[in-house]
Amino acid sequence: MESSVINAKPVARFDRRRLLNWFLGTSFGALVLSVLYPILRYVTPPRIAEASTSEVEAGLAADPVLIEKGFKIIRFGADPVILVRTADAKFYAYSATCTHLDCIVGFQKEHSRIWCNCHGGGYDLTGRNVIGPPPKPLTAYKVNIVEKSPGNSTVVITKA
Ligand code: FES
Q1: How many domains, in total, are found in the chain?
Q2: 100 lines ligand 1 (CB under 6 A)
Q3: Interatomic CA distance for residues 56 and 61, integer angstroms
Q4: 131 CB under 6 A from ligand 1?
């Protein structure tokens, strides 16, 4: 009888210690995971599928936003492309990545030029670098206007 009482206490202490170790171990693991996971997500680039085809539909040619702003940025696989629509309904498409330090370019409708706000770089409507630090022209894409249905034209961009 006495020997069973002596044996019972160490088992109970061992169980409490194991439980405490398990609790601290999993808490520490959860803490480490909750710190490391966001950091890993931040430094790992997102997976964006490359364009499976060599063409991308960029929306309606008469897109009101495109007419109002004169441009929009679309994705060609993982690459940003700037689609420009001038007042006389001419379309141009270029890589939207500035050739200086990779900022995304925009379009200044009032000056009819592609513009990079980062360091004041400018390109003309042929994609040629004409103002500021960009060292080379933008990569050109082909623009085709496809009439899907009467009065409903779509802009299709392909690699040049
Ligand atoms: S990144 Fe465009 S001008 Fe510098």
Answers
A1: 2
A2: yes
A3: 14
A4: no
The average confidence (pLDDT) of the chain is 88
Q: Is 132 in the pocket of ligand 1 (CB under 6 A)?
A: yes
The answer to whether residues 30 and 86 belong to one domain is no
Which residues are within 8 A (CB) of 143 and not within 5 positions of it... i.e. 6 or more apart?
83, 91, 92, 93, 155, 156, 157
Domain residues for 2?
Answer: 1-44
pTM of the model: 0.71
What is the Cα Rg of the chain in Å? Answer: 30
CA 135 – ligand 1 centroid, Å: 9
My answer on whether 106 and 33 are in the same domain is: no
Looking at residues 89-112, what average pLDDT do you find? Answer: 96
Q: What is the DSSP string of the chain?
A: -HHHHHHHHHHHHHHHHHHHHHHHHHHHHHHHHHHHHHHHHHHSPP--PPPSSSEEEEEETT-HHHHHHSEEEEEETTEEEEEEE-TTS-EEEEE-B-TTT-PBPEEETTTTEEEETTTTEEE-TT--EEESS--SPPPEEEEEEEEEETTEEEEEEEE-
